[in-house]
Amino acid sequence: MSLWSRISDAIAALSMGEGLAAVFDKLRAPPERSVAFAIAVIALGAKMAKADGQVTRDEVTAFREVFHIAAQDEAGAARVFNLARQDVAGFEEYATRIHAMFSAEPETLTDLLEGLFHIAMADGFYHPNEDAFLEEVAHIFAISDTDFQGLRARFVPDAVPDPYTVLGVQPDMSLEDMRATWRKLVRENHPDAMMARGVPEEAVRLAEKRMIDINRAWEDIRASYG
Fold it and tell me: Which positions ≥6 away from 45 have C-beta within 8 Å?
């Protein structure tokens, strides 16, 4: 059974009245945890896509950039997206369940939030309602305000991203402490580390942009020290 078939079956169970808790309980062990991650991105992304009042082609296309969708799976992927939009459960319930599943793996929750930022920015505009949506999801995920601000600085082009915010460090920290933080981020965002966390292989592609941003932030900080 393909990934999309398993995702579709799980979402269909929700639409037919099976409780969200029961569905996620079935997805606690590998390889189904990757299905749970994908459902979370799709369900939260589908609901967020309506936060600004409309679902654009760009936002739908953004899913294709997070998850490689083969031609034979396109119909299934569309069904999953539509089921998630129609499901009566609120996004808070999805976020709470996925937080419970990955509470011991905060890096995975950050991966998921990053995917949502990618979808939010797909149409080139960061709507205030999307910001409120993502901030609430981050709160449910127990992601710190500093980390949330770092993600927003990388994705939302309000200004040149502050390198200290991107790395989640303070300007008054020593250069060695900032170097240690940078190295930790590099280790955590290595593809092997992401796969070990049960992140779908397709979502690892998001780490490529993340690594560019992390390394650029470190280079900017290091250069400022002469």
Answer: 59, 62, 63, 84, 115, 116, 119
